[in-house]
Amino acid sequence: MRLLLVEDNGRLADLLVAGLGRRGFSCDHAASLAMASEAIAAQVHDVLIVDRGLPDGDGIAWLRDIRRQWHMQPALVLTARDALEDRVTGLDAGADDYVVKPADVDEIAARIRALMRRPGPRA
User: Fold this and answer.
1) How many domains does the structure of the chain reveal?
2) Rounded to two decimals, what is the model's pTM?
3) 3-state secondary structure (DSSP) of residue 1
4) Rg of the chain over CA atoms, in angstroms?
5) For residues 107 and 87, is the Cβ–Cβ distance under 8 A?
C-alpha cells in the first residue's frame, strides 16, 4: 500500500515514514503542498496523510482542491489543530479521518487500514 505523507516537520516525517514502513506501508514524503501536487500527479497513492499548517498553505484547502479534480483516495488529516471547528472543517473539506498530534504510529497505521477497508472510490 502506497501512502503520501504531506508534512513539513522533517523530524516527524522521518519518524512516520520509518514507522509506517516497518508496518508494511510504502510512504512517500512531501514537505509542501507544491511537492504534494507533483507527487499525486506522478504516482498513484492509496491514502493521503495531510498536515494543515504547511509553508505554502493549508492542507485542508489543498485537499478540497484535489477533491474537485477527482482525486478520491482516502485522506487522513494529521495536525496539531484540535478545536472542534477545525475537525469539522477538515472532515467537511474531504478528509476521511482527522487525527490530532501527537499520535502514535500504531494508531495511525490502524486508521489507514480502517480507511482501506471502507468501500468506495480508490486512487
Assistant:
1) 1
2) 0.93
3) coil
4) 13
5) no
C-alpha cell at 61: 484547502
Residue 120, all three cell numbers: 468506495
Residue 34's region, left for phi above 0, alpha for psi from -120 to 50, else beta, is: alpha
**pLDDT of 64-113, one tens digit each?**
999 898 888 999 999 999 999 999 999 999 999 999 999 999 999 999 99
* Beta bridge partner(s), residue 75: 48
**Residue 101 covered by a domain:** yes
Q: In what order do the strands lie in the sheet with 97-100?
A: 26-30, 2-6, 47-50, 75-79, 97-100
CATH code of 25's domain = 3.40.50.2300
- What ranges in 24-104 are assigned the alpha helix state H? 33-42, 59-68, 84-92
